[in-house]
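Lecture 7 notes: from sequence to structure.
We start with the chain below.
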Amino acid sequence: MVFKKIIDYEIEIIDEKFDKSKIKNISEEVKELYKLKIKEREKTAKITFIYQNNPNEIRYFGYVPEIKIYKAINKEYNINLNYCYVDKFSTKKYCKKNDTLYCKLKKIWGIHTVFNKANFENARFKEDVIFHNSLFLDNCNFIHTKFFADTKFVLTEFLSDVNFLSSEFYKNVTFEQSKFYKVTDFNQSVFYNDVDFFGVEFYSSVLFTSVCFLDNVNYEFSSYHKKADFSSVKWNENLLINKLLLSNIKSKSYSLKQLFKKLDNIDVNQKNDRYIYNILLKILCKKIEESYMINEKKNLNSNKTINIYKQLVNLSFSQFLKFKAKFSFLRIKLGKDRVTRKVRLSERIDRVYVIIKKILNQNNIKNIKNKIKMKYEEGRNRNISFLNSKFYNIVTLENSILYNDSYLDFNNSEFHSFTNLKIKRGMIKLNEVINRDIIDFRNIELDKKNIKKLNLFNIKNQGTIYLDWNKNNVKNAIDNGTDDYEKRANQYRMLKENYRKLGQYEWEDKAYYEFKRNQLKAEWEDVKNRKFKGTCILNKIGFEFKRLWDGFWYPLKTIFFKWIGGFGTKPLRIFITMLVTVILFGIGYKFIGDSLINTENAQMSGKLLKSFYHSAVTFLTIGYGDIQPASTLGVILSGIEGFVGLFLMSYFTVAFVRKVLR
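Predicted structure tokens for the same chain:
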């Protein structure tokens, strides 16, 4: 059951038993995929869906009171909500009633399920979560929720605001072909494994601010009809993860020293269960608190207490960074003064420094920071794919960071409004993209080169692209993006036209130079790699002759177009070449032979000066006639110089006028 565009609905609870007979069009594929089981219910929910531009539709679902779900949670049963209507279920209410911090749920099925005002705040899903073809009618809330197993929201529709604020997904999660009609908020969430937003449609604003993606991310064929905010996102950050198994963690059997030792033995390239890791951290914090209380009661020297916290601080950088587990507050005793600070080990580096400065000196802090930064950047490559996506409104990725040489892939996507790609660090692919407005890469707050690799091949730029040639390190970014000279030339040609529209003529010249340089190299690579296919000897001779002819022109083009004039972008270099040519020919006329030119009618003295004079008037094609060639060699050299002079003067005129008129 895939819902059409619903604009309103009416719900009526009927005192009739619900069974399979009231279900229409059950998909055999869904039955087989999930081994679908539908329970009988004491009551039936009759829901009338009012569609836009479609006739109303009545569907029947089994009605499940929230109290039954609470009982299933208490007994740790799996929760089967297939073809059910659930009204006002709230884990927050459950936690308040049972005086617990969070609600533990086992496996939950929600196939063809309708939720009204569902609140899963602070829920802990220990097993698989499946919402297939489900519908969330009003105010869906997953704040601070943790999913410890695979999670599926397939073909699911959210008719109102949905909030995943600070949620954590420890296994694979998919929102394949789901629809979000109102504001969607994933702020500060963490995705530890693969994430799939394939074919998702966001009809309102979607917020991914400060989200952390640690593995592959797929946004292929997704659509964004309103603002999409990816500001300050961390892509593919490598967390430092331990190898300990849950069965080996026994808080009473580990001493504080043993816990420190075990946490130090971490392989940064391994990725195991984060839940186990958080348990170990909580045990460690508890033991440190106990140790502090013992030391405080015994009135031990405060330096001993500080040493314990030094160890804790070191671990908070090297192992606990970026985790969102909450830990107890610690009281720190420094000499006679007692300082109380809230130490949350999951805080960002900058926030933690403020507290650490009370304990460690500045040098130690710097050493820890540099050491952790090196470890922190290790890891596997992961790519983030927005392939074939459509953005109909503003999208921003400002201050996002892509770690471990990961790519942000927007290939074949469409941007219909302003796009902010002011990332802090990373690599971007925009192949075959259609840009109808503005794409802005310029991050003026950064001094470092923020884009390592950039691919703009075959982009259809109907708008403008703001890309700073120097600060965005455009040349190196594009050259690092591909080794194909033809693709590089295509990108530089597009940028040349873009800079011309913006009036950035200096950058236009640089882009044009790179375009012609790579185009020339592409032609040379084609000549070298060209192979004859066939058996006819005459055709082969003609092929080889054409290949040699094309190869003959490559060095000449390199010398005259690239080196001498920078493809018409460097008139000063052409002018210098003109002066050098006049001087060299003048020296030739003087020292190769005295009989090269006739200087009898010259109104000046000195053979060298006369030679330079003849070289200048010949180069400039003036030809006064007072000095003329006196031998065959002199005629040949003068003719060559006259041709070179005509070519270079024309070349200089075009390049100079092009510079001045703009």
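Points to note: Confidence is low (pLDDT under 50) at residues 238-253, 263-279, 296-306, 312-381. The two ends are 62 Å apart (CA to CA).
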